[in-house]
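#lab-general

N.A. 3:47 PM
ok so I finally got the sequence cleaned up, no stray characters, all 148 residues accounted for. can someone with queue access submit it? mine expired

B.Y. 3:52 PM
send it over

N.A. 3:53 PM
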Amino acid sequence: MHDRPTPSSLAALTSHSRCSRYERGGGRCYRPTQRADGWCGTCAGFRRPQKPIAPADPCPAAPSARKLVTAATDRLPLASDEAHDPQLGVTRSAIERYCATHGGDRATAEAEIRSLLENLIATGTHQRVEGGAWRLLAREGFSLPTLA
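B.Y. 4:20 PM
back already:
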């Protein structure tokens, strides 16, 4: 018979964890975190010690920077906790681009994208782009294109 951890023992393990991510300059972040993904949510959040190099070709699902913003004051009609709803799809191209840029597997990539979406819904700038797509921007320079 195996000893299975209880939810309270798992919570105790994560409540005193340190961030597993890296800052922009490559230094390790050691802030405390209670998140299951091991990120404190305040550092740059890189999974590798160096800043990753973006792929040369743009993501085909991303709205073009040349498209006009039609209503910069609108907000994406989702609550931040809806970012983790399994009925909300994450495109294969977004997952593959994340894996190529940051490393990790597909499940981790999807979880990270959903975590970013959750943060951007709550704190980002929401822009409605021509054609009905949304672009979510953060003060740190991250952006997440979404479909209508």
